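Structure tokens please, single chain.
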Amino acid sequence: MARIETPKRIRGTQDIFGDEQRRFATVLEKFDWVRRLYCFQRVEIPVFEATGVFARSMGETSDVVSKEMYTFEDRGGDSITLRPEFTAGIARAFITEGWQQHAPMKLVTSGAVFRYERPQKGRFRQFHQIDAEIIGAAEPAADVELLVLADQLLHELGIAEGVTLQLNTLGDAETRDAWRTALVAHFEKHREELSEDSQTRLEKNPLRILDSKDPRDRPIADSAPGIDAFLTEEAGAFFKAVTDGLDAAGVAWTRNARLVRGLDYYRHTAFEFVTDRLGAQGTVLAGGRYDGLIGSLGGPETPGVGWAAGVERLAMLIDEPVTEQQDVIIAIEDDRAIGTGFRALKLLRENGLSADMIATGSPKKRYDKAAKILATTLVAIGVRDDKIVVNTRAAKASDAHVRVEEVLRGLATA
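Here you go.
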């Protein structure tokens, strides 16, 4: 008989269970709670899109597009890509679904995203993100709203300590063009000293040299001209409105003048929430304003700002997972009472109480098994003198059994 080979999990993927799953679920639950507080609508978008959506929005020369996307040709001959992020898909939907009539829109989404990258701590080839966007609002108040939402989420998760909001401005189009020209001139003087990747970036995406991690690039990037010398009055006023809004909301921030976004459609605010608790890859939430994105995809010129965060990376920062405690555990002490147990389960669940039942194994040991399960109330159902007997016991001197007794009243004589 041929031996059946044991299946293996693909490298760079993950199975989430136990404490990890509880941390993961906590992130999503808190995110949904906070988005409701801020009146953001939830949206669902496809897992895959036409490849051009990401190539045009993220840049043909970006690492994500050139090295990390899962792109393939489907049976119809179309090139499709598993989403590496959410913003491009939301922008595409804004155009194709006629959402302009609803602008400004405050949207959130979450789910799996896919990138072919070297697996490391907190990074997987299939991972999960939460995402928040405001589309159609050009005012700095939208940037403030998103940043305050992110800050509150981190506090709700209990992980805000040790996480720093780094903030920068990329200015308006006039600012960016002048700064880009100065940067190109600076880097051209040192072309031969730059890494191979940065020499390529110099031709197509020079701003990205500023955040290069290559030690050959750092001295050159650190001596490059800063953006403040090129800020227009309007761009400076926009950034001040954002920082004033954060100060008024009590959100701490620090300026990082080297924080950039390489693509031309990015404008004004760029930000990252960073920590030293996850090693070298310390960003836990990042985003910025992308006023030129929807126009670059062929839609009407529409301002936008947003951020994304990795669920796994946020979950790793949660010290203690939330322990799930069910409301009721039922022990069937006599097999003749199993039918009553099923009726009890239905009644409890219909009344909003989580409940489970132990009805297998030795009847004499079922109560002891039930007593070891983390539940607010233990219900024992047995038979005495040919009659169904129902007893409840509440854990930790709780009076929760009163409600359980009300729900199950009459069950013993049913």
